[in-house]
Amino acid sequence: MGFDDLHFGANLTLEVEETARQAKWMEQHGFEYISAGEHFMRGDPPGPSHASLPVLAVAAGATTSLRVLSSIVLIPFYHPLMLARMTATLDAASNGRLTLGVGIGGEYPAEFENSGLQVNQRGRRTDECLEVMTRLWKGESVSFSGRHFQLDGAMINPLPSQKPHPPLWVSGRRDPAMQRAARFGNGWVPYFFDPPRYRDSVEKIHTFAGEEGRSLTDFDWAFSPYISLYPTEQEAAEVAARQLGGQYLYGGEFINIVRRYCLLGTPEQCAERLNEYIEAGARHIVFSITCPPEDRERHLDEIAGKLIPMFR
């Protein structure tokens, strides 16, 4: 399919206690990223969700070359000094293999309320945190007086292994997230996009970066597609709709939304759809496997053995 600059990964697919085993297997089978996301209270009652950075530390400790990607860390829940320190430590301990994917959340207001945060301030809080963090990572003495954070001569030591800091991939779906990517980010990793919307986001980020006076020469264009591999598109769509229906509340017939945004069916069908995203600009593909627990290892096998080779 004609692209020689593609990179592939997948989310933490097995149970958390199998993190080390999955990471080793993925490294042996040619994946470049393992990702883990987080929520603090996902739903009522909360569904299972782990803190991403400790999970990624386990994955890093079990491997030597696999990059660890937070997809995503919910920035509003962290103080910038604490998060700069935690991520610098993880980057150093993994010998410079951290990619920090960040977002603002908001799907579950209860997790903000129970953390003493106001959900409608999450964007501004995130921007302040990223501004401070990127300066701390560079070794600066940071004095900052913002609406949400105040620092006076703050520093971290030691610094991250990667210079000037670990790649910062911004996630989201709307223009403020794209502006955040253009201002602070080294990459863009949206979710629940169809290919035309992905292409449109690339164009918008280039425009916003121009307004910021930034070059995007070394910018990482990433995407995290949901994938459901089954013998027919219909079966895959039904499985994906069941798996995702409790996580995302969108209007309309949910199975049609799934068809619009997910990779569904056989490896060949998924590759055909994935190629549309690649032609729209995506180069770092991190699959979000969407199936019941008993099918998860098969999905990893088929992605590594059948789907990725179609692009090599």
Keyphrases for this structure?
312 residues; alpha/beta; TIM Barrel; 8-stranded parallel beta barrel; two-stranded antiparallel ribbon; 41% helix; globular
What does this protein structure show overall?
With 312 residues, this protein is α/β, with parallel strands linked by helices. It has one domain (7-311): TIM Barrel, CATH 3.20.20.30. 41% of the residues lie in helices and 17% in strands. The protein has eleven helices and twelve strands. Strands 1-2-3-4-7-8-9-12 form an eight-stranded parallel β-barrel, surrounded by five helices. It has a two-stranded antiparallel sheet with strand order 5-6. Strand 1, helix 1 and strand 2 (33-36) form a beta-alpha-beta unit. 43% of the residues are buried. The model has no long low-confidence stretch (mean pLDDT 94).
Low-confidence stretches: none
Structural class: alpha/beta
SSE string, helix = H, strand = E?
A: EHEHEHEHHEEEHEHEEHHEHEH
At CATH level 2, the architecture is: Alpha-Beta Barrel
* Number of discrete domains: 1
Distance between the termini: 8 Å
The top level CATH class name: Alpha Beta
CATH topology: TIM Barrel
Please tally the β strands and state the result: 12
Distinct helical segment count: 11
**Globular, elongated, flat, extended or rod-shaped: what is the shape?**
globular
Largest sheet: 8 strands, parallel, barrel
Radius of gyration: 19 Å
Strand content: 15-25%
User: Strand order, biggest sheet?
Assistant: 1-2-3-4-7-8-9-12
Question: What's the CATH H-level superfamily name?
Answer: Luciferase-like domain
Helical amount: 40-55%
